[in-house]
Structure formats: structure tokens, C-alpha cells
Amino acid sequence: MVKIGNDWDEIIGGEFQKEYYQKLRSFLKEEYSSRRIFPDMYDIFNALRLTPYHAVKAVILGQDPYHEPGQAHGLSFSVREGTELPPSLKNIYKELSDDVGIPPSRSGDLTPWAQQGVLLMNTVLTVRQGQANSHRGMGWEIFTDEVIKRLDDRETPIAFILWGANARSKKALITNPIHGIFESAHPSPLSAYNGFFGSHVFSRVNKFLIENRIPPIDWRVGK
Questions:
Q1: 10 to each of 1, 14, 76, 98, 152, how far by Cα in Å?
Q2: Order of strands across the sheet that contains 180-184
Q3: Bridge partners (DSSP) listed for residue 59
Q4: Sign of torsion, CA 160 56 65 84?
Q5: Does this model's pTM top 0.85?
């Protein structure tokens, strides 16, 4: 039985008993015992652990974890302290600098965002080393869709940040009109110039939060 350690246990705990998750669990048990899988099994649910349900102000949806050693630690787009910044994160920092004037950080650890209420969740929570999307279609999407649906049920507004086609496909799950949806191209170098750069997402999200009497997010990350 998975224990998150906060109010997510009550909100989402029933999912761990369902047949799809039991099949996913068996698959993951075999994968972790026979291959190199990221993130570490104890970090899989870090997004939910660091950002309790009641504290979520914003959601940044990623696709699946980084698939090279030393990178993934359970938060979308984030890498462990001391790890070289991936290209997408460099572009996120560039837009952050252009939008609100925060200089790019040398740290790629986005834990400070998570601790302020930014749920940094991938739609698939595990991956094989060197094989992007290798755990796609194994059941994680059912679980993370349920997380999004439960967030949509919230009576306090949330800013949903959807970058790229994979994240934008989840827009149909967000039906409560109190929430804000902020969508653009993905920050990947392949698409960032197609609408991610210049989207001013960070200032727009904070404007949305302030308008709803929710404290804005301090987007600074380390040094």
C-alpha cells in the first residue's frame, strides 16, 4: 500500500487498490528488479508528497521523467542539485527571466516551486534508462488523470499550465470554470519558438492567483 503522507492519501488512496494499479505495480516490480528505472522507486510520488492536495495553486504537467542517470527525482522538468540543466529547463528559465526578470538559476531543482503549491507532475511517473516513453500505456495515465480530475473538483481556483501536445490533451479533464488554463508550445528546443517563448506564463499565473486572492508564487530557484 502506497502512503503519500498527506491529504492525498485520502483523496487518491483508493486508486492503489484498483485492478489497473495492481497490474502496474506488478509491472514496476519486474522493471525495477531487472532494469535501470528512473526515478528511484522512493521518489516516484515526490510531486504529491511535496505538494499536498489542499495546497495546490498551480499544476505543471510533464510527459515522463528524464531518462538519464542523476536527473529525475519525481518532479516534472526538475533535476537533482548539481545536475546539468536539460535543454527544456534552460528554456523555462529563459522565459522566466524575460517574463519576470528572475536571472536563470544554476540549480535545476524545482523543489522550491513544489513547496509553494506548484504540483510538478508527469503524466507517466517512471521510465527506463535511455528510453523515453518506455512506460507509456502501462497504467500511469489512468492514475494521473484521476489526480487531475480530483484537482478539478477543488473549490479553490488552480492554474493549470499545459506545455505541449501531451499536456494539452489533458485539457478535456479540466471542466470547472473557476480554474485557469495556461497553454502553449512545449519548452523543448524543438518547439519553444512556436509559442512558449513570449507566453509570459509566470506573470499571467501570478496575476490569476492574485485576482483570486491566492498568494502568488515566488518563481526564484536557488542561485
A1: 13, 8, 23, 40, 16
A2: 118-122, 58-62, 159-163, 180-184
A3: 119, 160
A4: positive
A5: yes
Which residues, in sequence order, are CB contacts of 64 under 8 Å at separation 6+? 122, 123, 124, 125, 126, 127, 132, 133, 135, 136
How far apart, in whole angstroms, are the C-alpha atoms of residue 102 and residue 44? 29
Cell of 5: 503522507
What is the C-alpha separation between 76 and 125, in angstroms, rounded? 9
How confident is the model over 157-194, as pLDDT tens digits? 999 999 999 999 999 999 999 999 999 999 999 999 99
Phi, psi dihedral angles at 117 (to 5 degrees): 110, 15
Per-residue model confidence as pLDDT tens digits over 188-219: 999 999 999 999 999 999 999 999 999 999 99
Catalytic residues: 64
